[in-house]
């Protein structure tokens, strides 16, 4: 191509680019391109630039399509997982409904699983619930008999009239329970009716407990501060007692108490001690068909206690951080021992000590299936290992029996919640 014509071609190309200056490409340079004599040089240059832009758009579209494909595959997997879970839920609901019709119990939660059921009632079968209510009514009768004996010695027309009213209410409740038993035997009544009836009866029982407690307060001034017991009549997640004092750091301990229970399966959790970051710092629990266990910092030892026969039993557990050595006593006799239970882990201070419930969170997270059902008294803690002789004195209610130097059993040290009640301790009175 002659040099003059090439120069004109470059000039025309420059004019074409300058004429389309809607876009600012920054510093520019001129590129000379050979084109046919009859071609439109401006159109050719624009077509060349459009091809590059088109190629870039195609690459971007391809990348977008690949990303969308990955997203669709991920969503398909999520839908598949959700469909599987929904199928499991539906099948579990069907099994639960069948189990309810067959009057069989379901599974229970493992200790410390973190499920919070505050405000719920225990999901026990109707027959078991009625059995518990019957036991509660019997307990109320016993307490009324004690009050009646007390009122004979301290005559009061107000006390007698209130006692008669409570006796009448107990009779009404017994008729309701009997009616419910007959309904179950005839196969009538659904889950909704069971729940309504149960809530009604438990509400009446809670009211009775509160009113009987008011009567029993009249006896409080006539007994020493440690001659009382706590009663947890139902397996709920709202009845418990809280020890006002926390524990110090301990490298050894002995914990002792009196227990009376006929609950099955498992008496529940007599006590639990939680600290920030560790709900199972120190726990005594008998859950389901498992033996009673003591947990220290989530480490577990199985204990040889058998106490759910409806009689009072005295139990003690000793432990030292050195090698994690422990011993278990029932009714003054050593029944088991072991080692390597949370060795060299001191019991941490500044926690919450609860009687009657297992804590999944600090001071809460109670689960009705792990609640203690029965009576508890003389809960004492020492920061050392007691000797067998000292344990025996406690179990036989000896006058030489010691009180805990960390936690001593006293009414002023205990706060009760949710209908748990205090009344005169009877075990040592029976022994003596």
Automatic annotation (TrEMBL):
Its cofactor is Ca(2+). Residues 130-176 form a coiled coil. Pfam families: Pentaxin. Residues 93-122 are annotated as: Disordered. Residues 226-428 form the Pentraxin (PTX) domain. Keywords: Calcium, Coiled coil, Disulfide bond, Glycoprotein, Metal-binding, Signal. Residues 1-22 form the signal peptide. This is Pentraxin (PTX) domain-containing protein. GO terms for biological process: axonogenesis involved in innervation. SMART domains: PTX. One of its GO terms (molecular function) is metal ion binding. InterPro entries: ConA-like_dom_sf, Neuronal_Pentraxin_Related, Pentaxin_CS, PTX_dom.
């Amino acid at each position: 191509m002659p040099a003059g014509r090439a120069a004109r071609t470059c000039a025309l190309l420059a004019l074409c680019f300058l004429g389309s200056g809607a876009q600012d490409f920054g510093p520019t340079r001129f590129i000379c391109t050979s084109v046919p004599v009859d071609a439109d040089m401006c159109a050719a240059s624009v077509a060349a630039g459009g091809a590059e832009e088109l190629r870039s758009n195609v690459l971007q579209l391809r990348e977008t399509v690949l990303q969308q494909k990955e997203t669709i595959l991920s969503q398909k997997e999520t839908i598949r997982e959700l469909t599987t879970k929904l199928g499991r839920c539906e099948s579990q609901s069907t099994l639960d409904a069948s189990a309810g019709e067959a009057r069989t119990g379901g599974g229970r939660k493992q200790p410390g699983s973190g499920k919070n059921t505050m405000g719920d009632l225990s999901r026990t079968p109707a027959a078991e619930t009625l059995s518990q209510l019957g036991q509660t009514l019997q307990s109320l009768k016993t307490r009324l008999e004690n009050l009646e004996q007390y009122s004979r010695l301290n005559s009061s027309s107000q006390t007698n009239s209130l006692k008669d009213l409570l006796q009448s209410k107990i009779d009404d409740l017994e008729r309701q329970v009997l009616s419910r038993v007959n309904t179950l035997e005839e196969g009538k009544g659904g889950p909704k009716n069971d729940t309504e009836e149960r809530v009604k009866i438990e509400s009446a029982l809670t009211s009775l407990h509160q009113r009987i407690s008011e009567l029993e307060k009249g006896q409080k001034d006539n007994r020493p501060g440690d001659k009382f017991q706590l009663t947890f009549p139902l397996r709920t997640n709202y009845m418990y007692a809280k020890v006002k004092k926390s524990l110090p750091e301990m490298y050894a301990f002995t914990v002792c108490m009196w227990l009376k229970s006929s609950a099955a399966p498992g008496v529940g959790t007599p006590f639990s001690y939680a600290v920030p970051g560790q709900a199972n710092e120190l726990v005594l629990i008998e859950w389901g068909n498992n033996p009673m266990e003591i947990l220290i910092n989530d480490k577990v030892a199985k204990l040889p206690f058998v106490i759910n026969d409806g009689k009072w039993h005295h139990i003690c557990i000793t432990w030292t951080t050195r090698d994690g050595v422990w011993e278990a006593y029932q009714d003054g006799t050593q029944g088991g021992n072991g080692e390597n239970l949370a060795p060299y882990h001191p019991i941490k201070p500044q926690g919450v000590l609860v009687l009657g419930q297992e804590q999944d969170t600090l001071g809460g997270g109670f689960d009705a299936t792990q609640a203690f059902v029965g009576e508890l008294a003389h809960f004492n803690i020492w920061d050392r290992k007691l000797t067998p002789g000292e344990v025996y004195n406690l179990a036989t209610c000896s006058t030489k029996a010691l009180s805990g130097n960390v936690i001593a059993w006293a009414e002023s040290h205990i706060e009760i919640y949710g209908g748990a009640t205090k009344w005169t301790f009877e075990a040592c009175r029976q022994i003596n």
